[in-house]
Design a protein that fits this description.
homodimer, 41% helix
């Protein structure tokens, strides 16, 4: 929970731990406590007139409803209204990845760009789409599931129950698993694979080259279908993968049709770990009636 | 070239042959001759006040420019202005696939649907996207290149220079080639493969089952990325493939995430071969200042 200035500076923030499989009341209670902590420390002139909420699942933004939170077992929770009642200001809710798109448009790598995709490379792989200047949520709020584009029919199993999804090839756990398979060891964590490659471990190098190529293959699907001007890549895995962006771009360019598609910009997120938080602030300005 | 009533009825039409690699002047001259033939046969009250033009390549619709016509070697031709000067009414131009989307929205299978993809299965495989009620062209008019989504890294060569594109697996020529490879014969035409399967030829049956599955795999990429409410399939190959839509849907559903995506409707085009022509008429109503 944070208070954010109009230029994107975070004035004050508070964190809370999420209990396992929380109820809506538990989450709202924690939000309200953190909100009080943030607001009480602000000068009166800085106190927010409205709030935004980046929710961990597909959302019905106009109605303020979190349609589903997979890890929490929630369905159709009117989280904006519950939160607004608890903190006393209007609350505008949207999906967290859509919030990241808004933050990147307002404060980050996509300033002034009308057509882009935002892709998060982390424990999972998610994405958001901005089409003609607007976050595009699809018919039921599910657009942008980049992580579950199938790249290999008989590829490794994915958390979604399918096989060979982009997420099963380039997420943090996937990188660790690919390295363990290559070396016959037990799966560790992705940062150890990046560290091993930096130390000259050829197996780690080979795995990361394959990951960069597979990421480029996945991005090529997005580009051929949507012809964006820009792809913004964020998330912890992206921080480590940054030096390999040229290989990602090369794999992408080899698989797209049309000169404009080959020229798509591929950039690292400029809002980083605070993307969803800053995006929630942008949502908040909307609920306050600002553009 | 046709005169189309507000309800989509074609009042009168004329055809012309396209010479190989025509110049813009040659095409405009033929359009104007066919236009005269159509208009002269109409009652005065039915004469059109404006026209639309469905162009065979990416277009800059607001400027009326055909950005590229691959088969003709054209680049940045102001075809709307040239045609308007030749026929004496305002002309609104767009890409032919986008025109098909407009026709399907106004007269066809996508009436009232805000989020859908239109896919043409023919000698090539093309597509158009409608997002939140508007045709979405991408940053440079290239959005919807469904035919060049890569399904198999080392798959068969595609006309685009790549390998394993959807077009290289499910277009008419691809179906003929797959059957020839399966039987060791010389490639014929796709209709012969459909006829052979109908006659109980197990090799043809096997090829068409694989084609239906590959089409479902390609559509799953579109659905995971865009979460459309509907996919509309048109083109000559689709006419023959219609009986196999249940297999296409099953392959699609097995590869998408989220209940709403599994429930996506998959329908045959309701405007058929005249899709681009009817879409041009919808474009024409726009240039005449109608909604």
């Amino acid at each position: 929970v944070a208070a954010v200035a109009a230029d994107g500076r975070i004035l004050r923030r508070a964190r809370f731990e999420t209990p396992p499989r929380p109820t809506p009341a538990q989450i709202v209670h924690r939000i309200a406590a953190a909100w009080s902590e943030v607001v009480e420390g602000l000068a009166a002139a800085d106190r927010p007139a409205a709030a935004g909420l980046a929710a961990p699942g597909p959302a019905d933004a106009p109605r303020g409803v979190l349609r589903q939170a997979f890890d929490w077992g929630w369905r159709d929770v009117p989280l904006a209204a519950l939160t607004s009642a608890a903190i006393g200001v209007p609350v505008q809710l949207d999906n967290d990845v859509n919030a990241c798109c808004l933050a990147e448009m307002r404060f980050g790598a996509a300033a002034g760009v009308q057509d882009f995709a935002w892709i998060q490379l982390s424990t999972g792989v998610g994405g958001g789409l901005v089409c003609a200047g607007r976050v595009y949520a699809g018919a039921a709020g599910l657009a942008g599931e980049v992580g579950h584009l199938v790249l290999e029919e008989d590829g490794p199993p994915c958390a979604c129950g399918g096989r060979g999804c982009l997420q099963a090839l380039v997420s943090g756990p996937a990188i660790a698993r690919r390295y363990a398979e290559r070396t016959g060891g037990a799966p560790g964590a992705a940062p150890a694979v990046f560290a091993a490659a930096a130390d000259g471990d050829p197996a780690a190098e080979e795995v990361l080259q394959a990951v960069a190529r597979d990421l480029g293959r996945g991005l090529a699907l997005v580009v051929n279908l949507l012809n964006p001007a820009l792809l913004v890549l964020g998330g912890g895995v992206m921080e480590s993968l940054q030096a390999r962006l040229p290989a990602v771009r090369a794999a992408l360019r080899a698989r797209v049709i049309g000169q404009a598609n080959r020229e798509v910009a591929v950039r690292r997120s400029a809002v980083g770990y605070d993307a969803a938080l800053l995006g929630a602030a942008v949502l908040g300005t909307r609920s306050a009636g600002q553009p």
